[in-house]
Amino acid sequence: xxxxxVIPCYNEAxxxxxxxxxxxALIADDPAIxxxxxxxxxxxxxxxxxxxxxxxxxxxxxxxxERNQGYGHGILSGLxxxxxxxxxxTHADQQTDPVDARQGLDFFRVAANPERLFVKGRRYGxxxxxxxxxxxxxxxxxxxxxxxMSDINAQPTMFHRSQFAAWRDPPxxxxxxxxxxxxxxxxxxxxxxxxxxxxxRAFGTSHWNTGMKARMKFVRRTLxxxxxxxxSKR
Length: 234
Prior knowledge:
Blueprint: E1 3-9, H1 16-27, E2 33-40, H2 46-53, E3 60-65, H3 71-81, E4 86-89, H4 100-110, E5 117-124, H5 128-145, E6 157-160, H6 161-165, H7 176-186, E7 190-197, H8 212-233
């Protein structure tokens, strides 16, 4: 069972050497895993770093999105280029370890019906304010969908290729995590979670979580998207 792990990278040049090292640990002794680093329209030295560090034809490869059109767009570009039966994504900032995907892959390898399995991490080690924010969003989505939804933006996110084939008009922004979770619930998938340590960024700052104003913008976008998705399911 082959896994394709997509990692969108926007201006992550300083993070890339350590990230690629951890991706090397993920694929070690497992030829059934590929990693796709998506240069998501970066305007720093990300393209040069990727060209320097990645060997042609290896299990870790990169694709380039010329113009940044959002976090979700970068992930979708990687998923469309993926070759694996199991598709997944995580972040490039190293707040979660790409090697975590090994534990998620184990669920699929023993599942009787991997087509109806949806796997996500469950973050620990986060600041209290972020945990409270996540809890509030989880409660809202659970009430709206009448299905248990928790830690929606946790990584990695992992699912069978057949679920991706059923997606229609997925969002190009951070709502993609929510969309994938909703779709899995809609298909009646079994959701499995496992704990992942969520640490500080190695370099740089978050591209969205920059304070209360950014959080409120994220909340407004999530609420609007959630209600629109709810209407589309009726």
